[in-house]
Amino acid sequence: MKGYWIPVLHSHLPFIKHPEHDYFLEEHWLFEAISETYIPLLMKFRQLESEGVEFFMTTSITPPLAEMLDDRHLMEKYLAHLDRMLELCNKEVARCEHDPHFSGITKFYLDRFSKIREFFIGFLNYNVLNGYRYFASKGNLEIITCGATHGYLPLLSVNPKAVEAQISIAVDTHKKHFGVSPNGIWLPECAYYEGLDEYLSKYGIKFFFMDSHGLVYARPTPKYGVFAPMYTPKGVLAFGRDPESSKQVWSSKEGYPGDLDYRDFYRDVGFDLDYEYIRPYICPDGTRVFVGLKYHRVTGEGEFKEVYNPIHADAKAISHAQNFHYNRVKQIEHLSQFMEDRPPAVVSPYDAELFGHWWFEGPDFLYYLFKEFDSKKELKAITPMQYLALHPSNQVCAPNPSSWGDKGYYDVWLNRSNEWIYRHLHHICDELCSLANRYKDSSDYLINRVLNQLSRELLLAQSSDWAFLMTTKTAVEYSTKRTKEHISNFIKLSDMLKRNEINEQLLSKLEEKNSIFPNIDFRVYAD
Amino acid sequence: MTEKQENTLELANESIKAFGASSSEHAIDKFANELPAHIDEEYEIPGSYGVDTLKCLGVNVNTVYIYWEVTDFMLGQFNAKNQALVVKLISSDDSDAELMNFFITDMVSSRFVSIHLANKNIHASLGIIRDGIFIEMLRSNSFFTPTDTVTLSQDELWMSKTEAFEQIIKASSPSAFNQSSSFGIIKELEFLRKHSETLKASQSVSSFSLSSKE
Q1: Assembly ipTM
Q2: pLDDT value at position B15?
Q3: What confidence score (pLDDT) does residue B174 get?
Q4: Strand B121-130 to strand B133-144: parallel, antiparallel, or no bridges (unpaired)?
C-alpha cells in the first residue's frame, strides 16, 4: 500500500421552506439535489455494498440540510415533485415513442425516476437521512457536521458567542439526527480564523478541513505540506485540500465533467419543449425553468448538441475513474520520496452536489473509482479518523486564516456587493446576547418561545449562502430578501419582547415557516 | 537551507502548485437562477441602530474592512460635534503602532482599506485629534491577518494525543492557553516538550505526548 486517499463530500443547501406557497422555485434546489445527488450516491453505495466492494468516505450533512431532509412538509412536497416528474417522463416516452433519436433517452429517464422513487419509499423509508445513517452504521461513511446555518465564522467572530452558537447547535443537531457526536466538521466555506480551534476543541471536534494555503502558510509551514494533517495548537487535526486532485474534478475546462460524452447541464426540456406542453411542469407563473430532463451531451462548445448516450457516458466514467486512480498512484509515488515516516495522504474535498446535479455521471465515477481502489490495492481510501488511528502523532502548527473561496481568503463573503449585511448581523447578535442574559432564568413559556425564534432568525440570517449569491449575482434578489427578511423578523420579535406586547399569531407564523432547530434553546447565547 | 527544509519546501510547492483551484464556483451556483424572487412581502431594515460601533475585519492579505456608527450623543460626550473624526488602524502586536489613518465625515459608513498586513493582530481606533493628541472615542475588535508566505523552521513540534489532551496541557503549562496567538501557544508547547518525557513517565495512562523530530 503506497498511500491514502481521503475523499470528502460537502453536502449542503441553505434552509429554504415556504409553506405559504404550493410551488416555490428555490425549494426545488433541495428536490433536485435529492433526485440527482443524494439518492444516486446512496444507490451507488448500496451497489458497492452488494458487490462486496470496500469503500470509505467522509461526508458532511450540514444542519440546515439535515433539518430539511427531516421536515415533513418539505418531504411531502418532494414526493409530489417526484410524482410530477414521473408523469412528465411517461408523457415524454409516449411523445417520443417513434422518434429514433429521443425514444431511448426518454425511456432512460422514466426508468431512472421510477428507481429513485422506489428507493426513496423503500430503502429510505421516505427519509434520505436513513440512507446516510445506514452507511454510517456500517462504517463506510464518516458523517461530519458544519456550522449550524453555514455561517461564515471569521466574519461573525467579532462576537465570539455567534461562533460558539454556530458550533454548539451544529453538534446538538448532528446528535439529534445521527445519534452520535460528530468527530469532524466541515467549516463553512473552509473558512478559518486565528483562535477558531478553541471552540472546535471545546465541542469535541477532532478534525476539520482547510484549503491548501491554510496549511502551507501555517506557522511554521508543516513538514509534509498538505500530504499529512497537522494539529492546531488546541489539538484539533487540520487536513489540507490537495489542489491537483481537486482540479481534475472541479475545473470546468480541464476537469472530467466537461467531457464531450457527458450529459450537458444547460440543455433542459424546461426550455426546449413547446411552451403549452411543458407549462404544467415549470413555474406556475409561466416562467421557464430547468425541470431536470436533459437529453443532450456536451458535444462541443457550439450551440449544436447531440443526443446523450448513457452507455457511452458510462464508458467515460470508467475510464476517468481509472485515470484518476492512476494519477493518484503516480502523485503518491512522487510525494513518497519526500516523506520519511509515513505514506502521503491526498485529501480531495468536493461539493457533494457537484456529483449528479452538475456532473450527472459523478456518482458513477465514484462507484467505479472505489472499485478501482478495491481491486488494485495500491492505495487505500480512508477517513480522517482511520488516518488518526494509523498516525496519531502529527506536527503542531498554527493554521493560516483562509477559505476555499475565490482568491483563497474572505473576499467572496466580504466585498462591496455584500458588506452591508455585517453591520446588521453583528448588531442583532449583540442584541440577542443581551436579551439571553436578561431572560436566561425565565420560565415564561411565551417569552422563551420569542427568544428561541429570535435565535432561529439570527442563525438563518447568518447563512453564508446569501453573501455568496450576492457576489456571484446568481440569485441576488432572493438572497437579499432572505437576509432582510430574517433581520426584519428579528427586529419585530425583539420589539415585541421589549414592549411586552407579544403577537402570538405572528410568532406562530414565523415558528412554522422558519422552523429550523425546533429544540433550540436561546440560552446558548447567554454567558 | 538544510535538506529537511528543502524537502518541506518541495512539499509546500506540491501543495499549492494549482492554487487556482480555490474555487469561484460552488454547487449552489448551479441551482440558483436569477428569476423574480417569490417573497411577497418587502422587508424594511434600519439604516443604523443608534449604537456607537467600530468593527474591523480582515478580507485578505492586502485588505481590511472597517465599519462604524457614531452617535450625536457620543460626539456630545467628547465635545466633538464640529471636529473632524479620524480612524486609525493599529498593530496590537507592536505597542499599538499606528499603521495608517483616514478622516471620516459620514457618521454611519464603512471603508475597505488597502494595506499589506501579514500575521498581525490589528484593531481600529476612532477619535479626534485635539491639540495634536489623538483622543480615542471607540476601539474595535482585534483581528489576526492572514499571510501568503511559507515559514520554514528548524524546530518541529510533534504531538500524539488522545481524549484528555487539553486538560493535561492546561495542568502542565497553564500559561500556554493565555497566549495571544496560536504561534505563541506553539512556542509554549515547545518549551513543554522538553519536559514531556518526565510527564509521560508520571502518567499511568499516556494521554498525549510531545516530541521533537530532528
Answers
A1: 0.93
A2: 81
A3: 45
A4: antiparallel
Whole-prediction pTM: 0.92
- Mean pLDDT calculated for residue range A448-454: 98
Please tell me the distance from the alpha carbon of residue A212 to that of residue A408, in angstroms, as a whole number.
Answer: 9
Query: What is the rounded distance in angstroms from the CA atom of residue B67 to the CA atom of residue B56?
Result: 7
pLDDT at B169 over 60: no
Task: Give residue B207's pLDDT band: very low, low, confident or very high (50, 70, 90).
Answer: very low
**Cα–Cα distance between A296 and B200 in angstroms, integer?**
64
- Return the pLDDT at A432: 98
The span from the CA of A349 to the CA of A212, in Å, is 11
Say whether A212 and B39 touch across the interface (CB within 8 A).
no
Reduced to 3 states (helix: H, G, I; strand: E, B; else coil), residue A371 is helix
Strands (DSSP E) contained in chain B are 53-60, 63-69, 85-91, 97-104, 108-114, 121-130, 133-144, 157-161, 208-212
Question: What CA–CA distance (Å, rounded) separates A398 from A238?
Answer: 10
**Chain A: residue nearest B58 by CA?**
A410
Confidence of residue B59 (pLDDT cuts 50, 70, 90): very high
| The predicted structure's pLDDT at residue A301 | 87
Q: Is the confidence at residue A4, as pLDDT, over 70? A: yes
Asked if the Cβ–Cβ distance from A265 to B39 is below 8 Å, we say no
- What is d(CA B28, CA A352) in angstroms, rounded to the nearest whole number? 10
- Helix, strand or coil for residue A111? helix
Q: Residue for cell digits 429513485?
A: A116
The residue ranges of DSSP E strands in A155-212, in sequence order, are 184-186, 207-210
Interface test with A, best of B15, B108, B109 (most A CBs within 10 A): B15
Phi, psi torsion values for B61, nearest 5 degrees: -65, -25
Q: How far apart are CA A148 and CA A166, in angstroms?
A: 5
Q: SS3 for A395?
A: strand
| Cell numbers at A466, concatenated | 446569501
Residue among B16, B39, B166 minimizing CB distance to A481: B39
Beta carbons of A13 and A60 less than 8 angstroms apart: no
Condensed to tens digits (0 to 9), the pLDDT of residues B9-49 reads 888 888 876 545 455 567 777 777 656 555 567 899 999 99
Residue B162 confidence (pLDDT) = 56
Does the pLDDT of residue A366 top 70, yes or no? yes
Optimal mutation site among A37, A198, A211, A213, interface B, most CBs of chain B within 10 A = A213
Strand B121-130 to B85-91 pairing: antiparallel
pLDDT, position A362: 97
Q: How many CB atoms lie within 10 A of CB A215?
A: 30
Contacts of B2 in chain A (CB under 8 A): none
For A207-255, the three-class secondary structure string (H helix, E strand, C coil) is EEEECHHHHHCCECCCCCCCCCCEECCCCCEEEECCHHHHHHHHCCCCC
Length of chain A in terms of residues written: 527
For residue A269, the one-letter residue type is: V
Length of chain B equals: 214
Of B110, B183, B213, the CB nearest to A219: B183
Residue (of A243, A227, A183, A192) closest to A403 by Cα position = A192
Residue B175 DSSP code: G
Q: Report the DSSP beta bridge partners of residue B66.
A: B56, B111
A305-323 pLDDT, tens per residue? 999 999 999 999 999 999 9
Tens of pLDDT along A158-210?
999 999 999 999 999 999 999 999 999 999 999 999 999 999 999 999 999 99
With contacts defined as CB-CB under 8 Å, which chain B residues touch A201? 166
